[in-house]
Amino acid sequence: MLTRVGADRPYAGSRPLTVAELDLDPPGEGELLVKVEAAGVCHSDLSVVDGNRVRPVPMALGHEAAGTVVQTGPGVTGIAVGDHVVLVFVPACGLCVHCGAGAPALCARGAATNGAGTLLRGARRLRWDGAEVHHHLGVSAFSEYAVVDRASAVVIDEDVPWEIAALFGCALLTGVGAVRHTVTVQPGDAVAVFGLGGVGLSAVMGAALAGAYPLIGVDPVASKRELARSLGATHVVAPGEEWPVERVEYAVEAVGSAPVLAAAYAATARGGTTVAVGLPHPDAELRLPALSLVAEARTLVGSYMGSAAPQRDIPRLVGLWRAGRLPVQALHTATVELDDINAAMDALADGSAVRQVIRP
Prior knowledge:
This protein is an alpha/beta fold. It has 2 domains: 11-169 and 327-358, Medium-chain alcohol dehydrogenases, catalytic domain (Quinone Oxidoreductase, Chain A, domain 1, Alpha-Beta Complex), CATH 3.90.180.10; 175-304, Rossmann fold, CATH 3.40.50. Helices cover 28% and strands 23% of the residues. The chain has 12 helices and 17 strands. The chain has helices at residues 11-14, 43-49, 97-100, 108-116, 162-165, 171-182, 198-210, 222-230, 258-266, 290-295, 310-322, 341-349, and strands spanning 23-24, 31-41, 59-60, 64-72, 84-87, 126-128, 131-135, 145-149, 153-156, 191-194, 215-218, 235-237, 248-253, 268-276, 299-302, 332-336, 355-358. The strands form 3 sheets. Strands 2, 4, 5, 8, 9, 16 and 17 form a 7-stranded mixed sheet that branches. Helix 9 links the parallel strand 13 (248-253) and strand 14. Helix 6 (171-182) packs across helix 7 (198-210). The two termini are 14 Å apart. The model has no long low-confidence stretch (mean pLDDT 97).
């Protein structure tokens, strides 16, 4: 549980995250009780800890996870006790304009409740010493059990290992979706991915699957560049190094940094598209040569949750993994204990880890 924002690093010393026993209400109308089997440690969690993503506290963090349904609330359909599920971080209402248009990642109700720290129907099911604790993105998966809305859960096959299943809820959905749904990379398109964390490496996998060439991975960490190469990148460079091509058709920014986004835009060719995936600080501003948008017919587009429809896309991604076409297991850096969550945040912040997975 996060009780304060902006603690000094290393977090293993300042310990902004506390492992505590909370009271958990049973699932209400349209909700599920899930035994969390695995939860990935993602930059979206770190960005709440360091204050780059403003959320109310106290908050139970964790949003990329998989688990087993142990109880269903009234009115739940299409899911049963014992089902294995991947949890997703935008609980789509299915009724708003965006959901009706086939864009559940932009669900207005889901965004509002995520910002408020509640579940989709407005409730908080967590309590600490009698006071309510906020939910993180409708999931709060750094825990043994979580109550989530039915819309936050996607049923998967029972033979998918938990450490792999968890990663489909954010890294794969966001990264692969950015090159598959936000834009549609075609064979032979030149693609560059800036930032080779879990999401960026997933974008590399998606672009490789689409037949991108050249496919360039950009990151200051040598081990991540080599991992990108093993996942299909044809070229890897550190920031500032010489490029194999002058510009690319598609540049994906997966860092959450305005300067890196500007660099990605500068690397995009005439008529090309820059895809912003990372989440910068809300005060960050971006300066671009405005004329290039028109005179070079350039496009700058945001991609949230990979413009995906989780109920449709997660089973498809699992199928691609099963077929050996998405080597998701390569993202798994280590399995860690819940008690080591602060140290795990340090490893994420210093770039030494891609995806650590907590097994509560």
